[in-house]
Write a structure and sequence with these properties.
single chain; 103 residues; mainly beta; 6 strands; globular; binds zinc ion
Length: 103
């Protein structure tokens, strides 16, 4: 990856390995973290609960509101994130082309 801090948001990029649609964004104002999440279809429900369960201290949950206008913007979630938040909740993209488990 070229280390060029883009002036554009990461919309429209794809994972070079598995071609999954990927959203890469710096999230946060003071201590920004680079988030790299798989971009689900807008209609796909991604409730906060399961995402929080699957998350680890190194793999945070991002909240993705879908604005009618304007670019997508990931939002930081905290332990006080409302469990019934209607937005999509995402953790880091786990590349499915990587052989992790062999049956
Ligand atoms: Zn949320
Ligand atoms: Zn991938």
């Amino acid at each position: 990856m070229a280390g060029r801090a883009g002036s554009q948001d990461g919309d429209g990029s794809r994972c070079p390995a598995c071609r999954a649609p990927i959203l890469t964004q710096w999230v946060g104002d003071t201590a920004a973290l680079k988030a790299r999440v798989e971009l689900p279809a807008p209609s796909e429900p991604r409730p906060y609960g399961p995402a929080a369960t699957a998350s680890t201290p190194d793999d945070l949950v991002w909240c993705l509101p879908r604005p009618r206008h304007g670019p997508l913007r990931l939002r930081w979630t905290t332990g006080r994130h409302p469990p019934d938040c209607p937005h999509q909740h995402l953790t880091s993209h786990q590349c499915t082309t990587e052989p992790s488990t062999i049956f």
